[in-house]
Amino acid sequence: ESNCSTASFKTIKMATATEAPESWYLALLGFAEHFRTSSPPKIRLCVHCLKAVFQFKPTQRIEARTHLQLGSVLYQHTKNIELARTHLEKAVRRSIPQFEDVQFEAASLLSELYCQQNLVDSAKPLLRKAIQISQQTPYWHCRLLFQLAQLHTLEKDLVSACDLLGVGAEYARVVGSEYTRALFLLSKGMLLLMERKLSEVHPLLTLCSTIVENWHGNPIQKESLRVFFLVLQVTHYLDAGQIKSVKPCLKQLQQCIQTISTLHDDEILPSNSADLFHWLPKEHMCVLVYLVTVMHSMQAGYLEKAQKYTDKALMQLEKLKMLDSSPILPTFQVILLEHIIMCRLVTGHKATALQEISQVCQLFHQSSRLFTNHAAQLHTLLGLYCISVNCMDNAEAQFTAALQMTTHQELWTFIVTNLASVYIREGNRQQEVLSLLRLSTNVCLLCSSHCLRAAAFYIRGLFSFFEGRYNEAKRFLRETLKMSNAEDLNRLTACSLVLLGHIFFVLGNHRESSNMVVPAMQLASKIPDMSVQLWSSALLKDLNKSCGNTIDAHEAAQMHQTFSQQLLQDHMAACSLPEHNLIGWTEGLPPVQLQPQNGPTTGLTSLL
């Protein structure tokens, strides 16, 4: 995003002042600006004034600039896209020495218009040509490189995007812009993380760290670079499931945001025109930091903290969306909703989760890009919801649909792991379970996520438990505990402890069972995880009863009754909602008109 004005009348007035333009031109331009900035804007009259410029047979410069202005106004304020395109194409064709900025700006805007019309094959050569001839204009050369790299990224051509960002970084170095060089390199690092090219990420982030620390410029720009760098570091650790390792970076990131919030935006333009960029507005950075904090809290099992930061971020987003139409805001919103939905399912708030799933569906109908990028995640969330209400056939259908929509290694592994849990609970799908476990084991060998590898051991332990192979189950679960304790994966730890406790109870080792179940209950209460609390309280009841501890058994029975009632009420509320019908959606856009339910259609069963 550029902090210099794009196609603004103010910029045009400044430019024309050096050319001693005719008074008629300044008058028409003044009227056009007045109509454009009226409340509400009078776009028809603004366009009428700009078109009148051509009646005076203006110079080539004024003619080219007016085509750009007309194209910009029509594109941004009307539905007459074809006329906007005509004017922009005329502006692009006007190649005037020492006046190339108009041509480059028109090319940038026209490529956006082409993409909106699904004419990507027209946008790319247009940008390439503009990049080729803009090397003597640092600001536009960098901006056009960023734009083409973004276009390749949207097309999932990350290799071409990385190449362009590398070209941009080297160009910025040559023209003496270490700030923009860092922006190019950090953007490339983000794409390399998406491609899981971790061997290339480490040296690049090390280089970026040096550049950021050594650059002394605008304080807000410096802090924004530091935020960008730390967001990549935090994301890298979270992708790897290294929850404990991420804490120092996350703390630094939160301190950076506090620093930025105290700084004032300087209107002083940098001396180097290649530095006329900023990564994100301060308000967007705040939302992003909330988002990565939520991601960390979810993986670590601090669900109340995750809910608190999600609420803060969503409130901030609602305020921003009233004033800002940036497409990154709905993306932030969807990712936040995905995380809070998982949180609700764990904490026993399925009805609320369904309503938030419905919000995601509505966002999909507003943006095909969001649907394309997040449909697999939504099917996965619906699969998790189906498990929570014991609709196993629907869960299988949702996870199967999700697998067909993603090539993302970590998401694919997460889906397969949960699909295996569905087959295990159904009890008669041993061959499918074994097939999935073989697949997930092979993928986990390549997977960079410590968390997913630990979860794979848990699922193998769960399968062995259901098959009655208790010693094998204990071996897998102890491995899960070892891995989850190493990175503070609290929810996996709680699940492993309660399952180990169940195994020891079945084997008659009540003392060892208690040593597992009591800390599992404490940890589940801290998270809080309603299913593990239900399971743990049932085990504690049976354990104390077997040991003759009548008072403790009664207390555990009361806890179990309380958790059962809470889950039952939530179960009935969720299954009665119209949104419950989404469990039957497996293809195309999700339905938005849903018939209300007459009542719950599924039974409540515990993990036991």
TrEMBL record:
<dbReference type="InterPro" id="IPR019440">
    <property type="entry name" value="MAU2"/>
</dbReference>
<keyword id="KW-0132">Cell division</keyword>
<feature type="region of interest" description="Disordered">
    <location>
        <begin position="588"/>
        <end position="608"/>
    </location>
</feature>
<feature type="compositionally biased region" description="Polar residues">
    <location>
        <begin position="594"/>
        <end position="608"/>
    </location>
</feature>
<dbReference type="GO" id="GO:0007064">
    <property type="term" value="P:mitotic sister chromatid cohesion"/>
</dbReference>
<keyword id="KW-0131">Cell cycle</keyword>
<dbReference type="Pfam" id="PF10345">
    <property type="entry name" value="Cohesin_load"/>
</dbReference>
<protein>
    <recommendedName>
        <fullName>MAU2 chromatid cohesion factor homolog</fullName>
    </recommendedName>
</protein>
<keyword id="KW-0159">Chromosome partition</keyword>
<keyword id="KW-0498">Mitosis</keyword>
<dbReference type="GO" id="GO:0007059">
    <property type="term" value="P:chromosome segregation"/>
</dbReference>
<comment type="similarity">
    <text>Belongs to the SCC4/mau-2 family.</text>
</comment>
<dbReference type="GO" id="GO:0051301">
    <property type="term" value="P:cell division"/>
</dbReference>
<keyword id="KW-0539">Nucleus</keyword>
<dbReference type="InterPro" id="IPR011990">
    <property type="entry name" value="TPR-like_helical_dom_sf"/>
</dbReference>
<dbReference type="GO" id="GO:0005654">
    <property type="term" value="C:nucleoplasm"/>
</dbReference>
